[in-house]
Each structure stands twice: as C-alpha cells, then as structure tokens.
Structures
1.
Amino acid sequence: MEELIQTILIVITIFLAIFTVEVKDLLHAVICLCGMCISIGILFGILSATYVMVFQLLIYAGAAVVLFISVVMLTRRKEE
C-alpha cells in the first residue's frame, strides 16, 4: 500500500513540475510549484525523513512560494 501511495505522489510531482514549466500564467506556475513542493514534502514524510520534510514544507512550500507570489502580484503585467 505504501508503494502505491509513493508511486501516485511521484506521478503527481512529475505532472506538477511539467505544468510549472509549461503554464503561461505566472501565478498558476507558482501554484503548481507550491503543489510540487508539498508533494515532495509528503514523500519525505512517507520515507520517514521528518527533518527534511519539515524544512521542505517550511522553506520551499512556505517561504519561497510566498516570495514568488508577492513578486508576481507586485509587478505589472501586460494585458494582451
């Protein structure tokens, strides 16, 4: 059962990584990046690496994504 959950999370992580690169809207790309970071953190939790999981969720899914979202929201975008 644990291997099935790991496989599903790996597939989700790969799809979110592809969507992060391929999406045209920057805000959607940052949201996909956040989802990817969260799924990687959950994978670390399943592998019993709680210390790495906590830092993955706090630093990458928390601080870095908030920084990216604030930069995207504060810059002017061209309306096409």
2.
Amino acid sequence: MIIRTVVLLGALAFSALVSAATPSEPADVQAQLRSYFFEAARAGDVPVLQTFIDAHYPLDSQDEKGYTALILAAYHGQQPAVELLLQAGADACQQDQRGNTALMGAIFKGEVSIARRLLATDCNPDQRNGAGQTAAMYAGLFNRAELLDALAAKGADLNAEDGLGNSAARLATGEIRTPASR
C-alpha cells in the first residue's frame, strides 16, 4: 500500500510538473522534461507519453539530432507509443536532421507493422531524405519486399533514383551503386 501511494504521488507530481511547464521555465527544467519525453518514446512508456499529451506538450519537438518522439518510438519498435502519438496528432512526415522520417526508421529496423501503420498516414511515399533516398529505397536495400509492395500500392515510384543512381527496384536486386562505382 505504501509503495502504491508513493508511486501515485510521484506520478501526480510529474503530471503537475509537465502541466505547469511553460517556455519561461528555467532551461534546466525544460531540458529535463524534453529528456523524459524522448526517453518515454524510446522506451514505449505510454502512460508517461499520455501525461505529456494531456499537458499539451509539443509532440513534434525535436532532440539535438532532430528526432521526434514518433521517430524514436517507430525506430525502437514501440507500436503502442506510435499509435498513441499518431492519434494525438504527431506529424508522421516530419524529418530528422538527415531528412529521415519515422517510416524510414521503421523500415531500417524491420518494424514491418509500424511501417504499415505509418504508411496509412498522409505522407508523400516519395518523400526524400538528405541523401535523396526514399522509404522505398530503404525497403529495397533492407530486403523488405512486403513493404515495397505496400509502398507501390500507395503510389511510391520504385524507379526513382537517388544521387548515385540507386532505385528501390535496383536495390532490391542487390545492385548498389556507391560513389566509387560511378
């Protein structure tokens, strides 16, 4: 009973801290909240993420690498967290500093069910990262044939090429062009 009470009081204090946080809070408090937010996404801690959502925390805020909570949750295979963030309005099309999206991260890590869920959003299937690569190119490179079919069904151009001349179709066959092969 005592442990349950302590946990409940801790959760209430955390909720109050998140709810009371404003841009005028000291930088260390803001940094700590951001850290909790991104760690909750990485770990799939749905109750903590829900606390941030209830407090109207900016869901599309980015860490120092440009990762959003949705990108982190997708990359780390946290399906319930991905669903919660999408339902709360997180932007599935947002890119990190390298231009990668949550969909690209899910494909890279082999998180097929998460990638399928992200494909159901309104993002352009041919959205490119900083290297000119698309989600379909990731699916081809990492041999995710089932996702290549789903991307094609959504309208992705499997013949689009990156700056090196790699297309999703070419990558799926193992024909990879590198700077040295040009």
